[in-house]
Amino acid sequence: MTDKTTILFFDSGVGGFSVYREVLDLLPQHHYLYAFDNEIFPYSEKTEELVIQRTVSVCKKINETYPLDLIVIACNTASTVVLPALRKIFDIPIVGTVPAIKPAAQISQTKHIGLLATKGTVKRPYVDELIHQYASTCQVEKLGSTKLVEIAQDKIQGDSVDLIALCDELSKWKNIDHLDTVILGCTHFPLIKDEIQICLPQVKYFIDPGLAIAKRVAYLLENVKVRSKSETKNLIFCTKQFEIQNKFMQSLKNRWGFEKLIVLNLDE
């Protein structure tokens, strides 16, 4: 693959940047778009039907103007429900994000691991199946949190992290001494990994799927035919205007080279 492919990353918020940065590090030469559905952020406590409807609508809307070659659903909550619907609509590779349960079970020395995810993700039968398949020899703690998603969202938008609130959210795990491995089962959580580690000092390993997704994207691009070569600017899309747009965009332009923020109108 020598031509620039157009790759869309989609999340309800900015957590997908933790996946995007891994893909960008491995594949810096491609054309990148990022979309976040801030109008109904976060997805963690929304119905499956609404999550599917919103994800499909955003991806279809962007594809009308910017023909996509690959889509990364950089959101664990959405990935548990939207992939079949997207694959019916798009004849391009669709990459989902799932909790890294298998590598966590393999690396844990105490065989006592924690799945830190959204409230929606920890309830999905799919997650129970992954635990049964790959971590049946482990004791698995599950903790679903919307607060941590909001803390990570605020951090990347320039706010300081409230460590007291963060540690309070993780207090159930504070005294589990044998908990040596934690799966960061929401793409927002790698963005606050250092702060999470302060609250859980007994944990040796924090596992997220970012690098594995990057390798998967690289593999799939080997057989992708580029649909459009006309667009080269890296763009960000959201679904609602917000107060700190200019500050947010300046940060992302300096850090990752995004040049413009576009507000989508899904009703058009």
TrEMBL record:
Task: Name the Gene Ontology molecular function terms of this record.
Answer: glutamate racemase activity
**Which EC number(s) does the record attach to this protein?**
5.1.1.3
> Is Cell wall biogenesis/degradation set as a keyword in this record?
yes
Q: In which pathway is this protein known to take part?
A: Cell wall biogenesis; peptidoglycan biosynthesis
Q: Where is the active site?
A: C75 (proton donor/acceptor), C186 (proton donor/acceptor)
Q: Which UniProt keywords apply?
A: Cell shape, Cell wall biogenesis/degradation, Isomerase, Peptidoglycan synthesis
Which sites bind substrate?
Answer: D11, S12, Y43, S44, N76, T77, T187, H188
Reactions catalysed according to its record = L-glutamate = D-glutamate
Output one GO BP term.
Answer: cell wall organization
Per its UniProt record, what InterPro entries does this chain match?
Answer: Asp/Glu/hydantoin_racemase, Asp/Glu_race, Asp/Glu_racemase_AS_1, Asp/Glu_racemase_AS_2, Glu_race
Query: Pfam families, from UniProt?
Result: Asp_Glu_race (PF01177)
Give the matching Gene3D superfamilies. 3.40.50.1860
The domain of life is: Bacteria
The cross-references to NCBIfam families, in alphabetical order and at most eight, read: glut_race
* Family the entry assigns: Belongs to the aspartate/glutamate racemases family.
Q: What does this protein do?
A: Provides the (R)-glutamate required for cell wall biosynthesis.
Name assigned to this protein: Glutamate racemase
Q: Which organism is it from?
A: [Actinobacillus] rossii
From the broadest rank down, the organism's phylogenetic lineage runs: Bacteria, Pseudomonadati, Pseudomonadota, Gammaproteobacteria, Pasteurellales
